[in-house]
Inverse folding.
């Protein structure tokens, strides 16, 4: 598919100035761009050209900073350029303006915080925006649930996709790449032989690092050789010292232990500070969506103390990779949890290892990207469902048993495919199977590469939703990509109750699958899909390059006509 | 000119209060090219080095004008400029008319900021620092508020509104009382610390009570009437920004205007005036409110909000909030004095508030 990703007006992509959303986008792009023709629209920055193409991804940068100006530029760009799917990051207020100039594109939305709250978007506009988007992905259950509470009708569209981290960059201090860096940093800042507590994040009242600073006098009585490192850019700012930064500075100045404040650290050097630390503390006081630093701390093998606010506890398995402070407004509660960890060296080590394990197994970017690809495929499906309704025709292919008349995609797949390729049904449902008839749906034609019957494109299988037989396993896979351990299962149960609608859908399909073919209970659908499809008259397309799409479109129509089913994988 | 970005500038011993960096003076000259004016002289009047703003007085072939470099975000400045235009063109208020550029615009964008030229009103004289002067100021303020109603900002402008933020503002006061306390504890060796700690609980409690009262008041009903209904507050109104001209009171320096419940300006004027008197005086307070009311009628509901806002520890908060910056300097003997003065002045506040509490009972 030709896809436009619209960033926020605050910070540029790539994340030369940092930013959670910007990091997220850069994290998934290498994977997404293998499958789609992607343009990233964001704000301009003096250090970046207004247009460039890097590794096949087009970047377009327009003036922004202020939402109203950015919105105008976004609208202008979308008006002049067509995309099959437009993915908007964290700005529901862009949905309607974008829809107005892109009436046919699919729109999907990523929500990274509370931008749906009534003070951020007029409820009327919010509802209209929710109508227009086909899917909403959120960075935590917390974010999704807040939207659900406000707008229950959006619930079926919402899905949690936890963010990710570069586990090759954020490495444990014991890793050969990090040992030297760790030692150098510690030496340079007088942290040798210290137990270093790390805070990394904005210095704001919401983030609450003052609670940690206030916990330290007590902690330093209990533990010798503590040191605090605060990584946050506002610390040294001359012109822009907020009252809060000043407050924390004033308190820190009086601490009996060394306090290292880094000021702005380039985003590509942050990992060094994680490697130099021994314990990570997140002090957030507000209902935080889910701070990225948790993934980074895990990847760096640090035990974590975080707060029971917003989505943060969702990535903590208590006592396994960290501890959760239930009353974060009270510095004494930090004293308690931090003491618990610092007083047990073996627990500290275990927690760090568990965190690293979780990061590697659950929180890598490829997992984030593959989930996003699934969502896009679903969005695409809805579009084709519509096209089906518009172009009712007698299917010509020999394997079609019933004529398709105005059925929803799912029922199309059920009825049409059922007898043909049962085991594939699940993945097919996700990616839409269409009997090809005249006229060929435009969106299909765009992605078909000619009469390719086999072999099945590898890339399809790579991000096909796997037909998992066990219903529970499916719902777990949705959120936690790891063998199901007891605690994870618990976790999954929680998700289930919070994500009713999503999981219901999954369960249904899962159950269906099981009755059809229990043998699909396997990790890899590659072979399954391939062997089942092979030899049948299916065209599975994926990874179609842009140049091919345009030029082959008409040709394809003629060739495809009357011959094959087309399975599109949502590209 | 395109690439220059105006930043705040450092003031030290080598610079005087009228220092403006050369590149900004240069930009000022370039900005003036956009106007059909022949400028005879240009003189710096005031600077905001910490924010990056400045005002010049121009002598031109068309009389005296002001040139302003607005330090706020351009979209925010558009809001204020739109308001100034609305007040002059639509409401014929006594605020300085904006001089248009050659191509008919209200402003010039340069160095990433907005600049504009307005009429320099002459003569202007401050009102007397007595009750009569205070009443004149209050009446003019009410007039300003009344005329600002119905303002609809230009589409490109950010909407500057404090109307919905009162609870947040009160909460912030409560939160910061705790900061003050924690700092005083951390710097207990400083002279003012013990004085601050002795009174902080009481002021914090006042703020808490204020927030409670606000939450139970008609506030939430009133704000439903919306921004345009209530109009603009000036936010920086007092003896210098409200002055007497030939034909009545003029209001100047509109850069900070924002939508809000109008009585916030009035509350600030009252508390500031009482602080200058070192005591609360029931006659002054009543007369000031009455003068305002004549120009912009206060309803019983709005009066209730005014009473709540007056009961907040405004002066203490305003004067002590600096403590977070350099407590090791701020918490000195002088601040001890300051705290004592505030406590004494505030002491006389409560009987006054009690006395005027029911003044608006009969008002519809």
């Amino acid at each position: 598919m030709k896809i436009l990703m619209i960033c926020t007006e605050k910070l540029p992509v790539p994340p030369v100035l940092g930013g959670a959303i910007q990091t997220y986008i850069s994290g998934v792009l290498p994977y997404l761009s293998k499958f789609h023709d992607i343009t990233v629209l964001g704000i301009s920055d003096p250090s970046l050209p207004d247009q460039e193409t890097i590794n096949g991804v087009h970047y377009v940068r327009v003036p922004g900073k202020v939402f109203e100006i950015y919105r105008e530029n976004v609208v202008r760009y979308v008006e002049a350029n067509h995309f099959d799917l437009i993915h908007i990051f964290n700005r529901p207020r862009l949905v309607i303006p974008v829809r107005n100039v892109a009436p046919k594109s699919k729109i999907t939305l990523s929500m990274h915080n509370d931008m749906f709250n009534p003070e951020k978007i007029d409820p009327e506009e919010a509802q209209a925006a929710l109508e227009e988007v086909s899917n909403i992905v959120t960075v935590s259950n917390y974010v999704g649930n807040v939207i659900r509470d406000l707008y229950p009708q959006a619930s079926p569209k919402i899905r949690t996709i936890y963010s990710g981290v570069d586990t090759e960059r954020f490495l444990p201090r014991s890793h050969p790449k990090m040992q030297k860096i760790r030692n150098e940093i510690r030496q340079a800042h007088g942290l040798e032989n210290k137990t270093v507590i790390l805070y990394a994040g904005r210095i704001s009242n919401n983030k609450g690092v003052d609670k940690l600073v206030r916990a330290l006098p007590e902690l330093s009585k209990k533990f010798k050789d503590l040191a605090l490192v605060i990584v946050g850019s506002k610390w040294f700012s001359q012109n822009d010292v907020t009252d809060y930064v000043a407050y924390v500075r004033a308190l820190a100045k009086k601490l009996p232990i060394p306090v290292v404040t880094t000021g702005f650290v380039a985003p590509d050097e942050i990992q060094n500070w994680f490697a130099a630390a021994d314990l990570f503390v997140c002090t957030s006081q507000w209902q935080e969506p889910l701070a990225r630093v948790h993934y980074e701390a895990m990847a760096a093998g640090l035990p974590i103390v975080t707060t029971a606010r917003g989505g943060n506890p969702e990535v903590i398995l208590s006592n396994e990779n960290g501890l959760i402070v239930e009353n974060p407004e009270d510095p004494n509660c930090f004293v308690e949890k931090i003491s618990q960890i610092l007083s047990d060296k073996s627990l500290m080590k275990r927690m760090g290892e568990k965190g690293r394990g979780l990061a590697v197994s659950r929180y890598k970017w490829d997992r984030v990207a593959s989930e996003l690809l699934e969502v896009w495929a679903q969005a695409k499906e809805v579009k084709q469902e519509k096209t089906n309704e518009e172009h009712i025709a007698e299917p010509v292919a020999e394997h079609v048993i019933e004529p398709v008349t105005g059925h929803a995609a799912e029922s199309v797949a059920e009825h049409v495919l059922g007898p043909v390729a049962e085991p594939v049904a699940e993945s097919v449902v996700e990616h839409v199977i269409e009997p090809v008839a005249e006229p060929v749906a435009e969106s299909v034609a765009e992605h078909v590469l000619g009469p390719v019957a086999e072999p099945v494109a590898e890339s399809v299988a790579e991000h096909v939703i796997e037909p998992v037989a066990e219903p529970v396993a499916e719902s777990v896979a949705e959120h936690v990509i790891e063998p199901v351990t007891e605690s994870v299962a618990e976790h999954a149960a929680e998700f289930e109750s919070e994500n009713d609608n999503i999981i219901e859908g999954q369960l249904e399909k899962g159950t269906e699958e099981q009755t059809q073919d229990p043998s699909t209970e396997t990790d890899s659908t590659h072979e399954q899909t391939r062997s089942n499809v092979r030899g049948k008259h299916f065209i599975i397309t994926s990874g179609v390059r842009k140049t091919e799409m345009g030029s082959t479109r008409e040709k394809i129509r003629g060739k495809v006509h009357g011959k094959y089913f087309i399975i599109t994988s949502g590209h | 000119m395109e690439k220059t970005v105006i930043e705040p500038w450092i003031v030290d011993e080598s610079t005087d209060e009228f220092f403006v960096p050369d590149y900004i003076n240069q930009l000022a000259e370039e900005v003036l090219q956009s106007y059909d004016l022949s400028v005879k002289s240009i003189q710096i009047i005031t600077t905001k080095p910490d924010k990056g703003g400045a005002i010049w007085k121009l002598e031109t072939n068309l009389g005296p004008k002001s040139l302003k470099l607005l330090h706020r975000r351009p979209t925010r400045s558009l809001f204020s400029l739109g308001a100034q235009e609305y007040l002059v063109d639509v409401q014929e208020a006594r605020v300085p008319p904006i001089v248009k550029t050659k191509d008919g615009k209200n402003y010039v964008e340069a160095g990433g900021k907005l600049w504009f030229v307005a009429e320099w009103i002459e003569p202007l004289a401050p009102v007397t620092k007595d009750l009569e002067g205070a009443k004149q100021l209050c009446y003019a303020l009410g007039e300003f508020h009344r005329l600002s109603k119905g303002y609809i900002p230009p589409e490109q402008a950010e909407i500057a509104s404090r109307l919905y933020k009162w609870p947040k503002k009160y909460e912030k006061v409560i939160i910061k009382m705790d900061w003050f306390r924690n700092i005083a504890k951390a710097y207990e060796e400083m002279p003012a610390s013990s004085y601050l700690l002795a009174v902080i609980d009481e002021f914090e409690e006042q703020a808490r009570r204020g927030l409670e009262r606000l939450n139970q008041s008609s506030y939430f009903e009133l704000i439903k009437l919306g921004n345009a209904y209530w109009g603009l507050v000036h936010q920086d109104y007092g003896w210098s920004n409200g002055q007497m001209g030939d034909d009545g009171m003029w209001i100047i320096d509109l850069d900070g205007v924002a939508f809000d419940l109008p009585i916030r300006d009035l509350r600030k004027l009252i508390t500031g005036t009482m602080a200058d008197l070192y005591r609360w005086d029931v006659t002054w307070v009543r007369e000031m409110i009455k003068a305002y009311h004549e120009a912009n009628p206060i309803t019983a509901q709005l009066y209730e909000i005014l009473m709540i806002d007056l009961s907040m520890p405004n002066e203490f908060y305003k004067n002590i909030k600096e403590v977070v910056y350099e407590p090791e300097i701020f918490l000195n003997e002088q601040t001890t004095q300051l705290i004592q003065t505030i406590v004494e002045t505030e002491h006389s506040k409560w009987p006054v508030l009690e006395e005027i509490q029911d003044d608006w009972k009969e008002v519809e």
Summary: The first strand of chain B starts at residue 39 and ends at 48. Strands of chain B lie at 39-48, 53-60, 63-70, 98-99, 108-110, 113-119, 232-233, 242-245, 248-251, 258-259. DSSP finds 14 helices and ten strands in chain B.
